[in-house]
């Protein structure tokens, strides 16, 4: 396998597609996936809690999705023109998502958040955006600020997380701590007249919002004239069919949707108020017209996969199913740690719980960063070593395909993984 990854690295730098990379001794090439299981080319079998970083909410190769994609392939894979699957999917998004008066398709979640911010700047005539420290909104220059724990500036200062981001862009990004309305209100008081948008993951990574926090952001935006943008790439259709905005009863002006909406194929959505989204129409007034286009936007193959996924989720009451599965997983991991006298808490909603080795309250990025990240990372690696595929030190996605037997197997394996981490001296009993 080491030699194989040397070859892969010679073709694909880092031998990975982004930043997610397992150590060489654990890394593998996927041969196929079915349900909540993936198989590697070297014969290993993994229970999958990565699920392609979330899109495979029904599991891999769900028969209804496979059927929809196969049918669309026979009709054509791309047209650069309006097509029936895209229209049907837009109607379904409009039906399910509270803010979705109007819909535009893009390629991935990062494009969706990028265009949400572009629309907000055009609509308000302002340049600055406020995001929350530790939030991930994709790969574009505005999003890549405040993700790392080192060298954190005083609020609302923002530090870029990648080389190649112009200082001029950094100067338009303001930062505040998640779940802290007091600091956020201070930032808005100073910069509200310059603020185009507040963008927030309503559940930031696995940090649940405190009661009143999202309502407070809605009120701040209304007061200063900025737009409220929910990044629902992760939460959309997962924590409720209408996303976190339905779950918490707070309606943003715009939202980004990804992952589930494409059914495992590249697709994302900008949804929101019609008076804002229609600025992207070719018929929009030239003064505020927003360029939003892409060769594969509204791709019929991806739209067919997404539409089939949403139909199955609706029929199953998928979010309730995910809640039951995720609760069983989180309870099992928590009980296992308790039997081993290890300090573990399960963060996040049941649909994507995250194990954190610490007992202190975790409410924002800095308190999250202060937890035992080394132990969380090693725990994830020990799970992978034993046949449970996770993104180490991150959330664990569950699907409707995970079975009670697989959950029992996962919890049994987790006992051995936690014991190994403890025996390495990374966590104390």
From TrEMBL:
Its cofactor is pyridoxal 5'-phosphate. InterPro entries: Aminotrans_3 (IPR005814), PyrdxlP-dep_Trfase (IPR015424), PyrdxlP-dep_Trfase_major (IPR015421), PyrdxlP-dep_Trfase_small (IPR015422). The keyword Protease does not apply. This is glutamate-1-semialdehyde 2,1-aminomutase. The keyword NAD does not apply. Gene3D superfamilies: Aspartate Aminotransferase, domain 1, Type I PLP-dependent aspartate aminotransferase-like (Major domain). Belongs to the class-III pyridoxal-phosphate-dependent aminotransferase family. HemL subfamily. It comes from the Bacteria. One of its GO terms (biological process) is porphyrin-containing compound biosynthetic process. Transmembrane segments: none annotated. Keywords: Aminotransferase, Isomerase, Porphyrin biosynthesis, Pyridoxal phosphate, Transferase. Pathway: Porphyrin-containing compound metabolism; protoporphyrin-IX biosynthesis; 5-aminolevulinate from L-glutamyl-tRNA(Glu): step 2/2. It catalyses: (S)-4-amino-5-oxopentanoate = 5-aminolevulinate. The lineage of its organism: Bacteria, Bacillati, Candidatus Dormiibacterota, Candidatus Dormibacteria, Candidatus Aeolococcales.
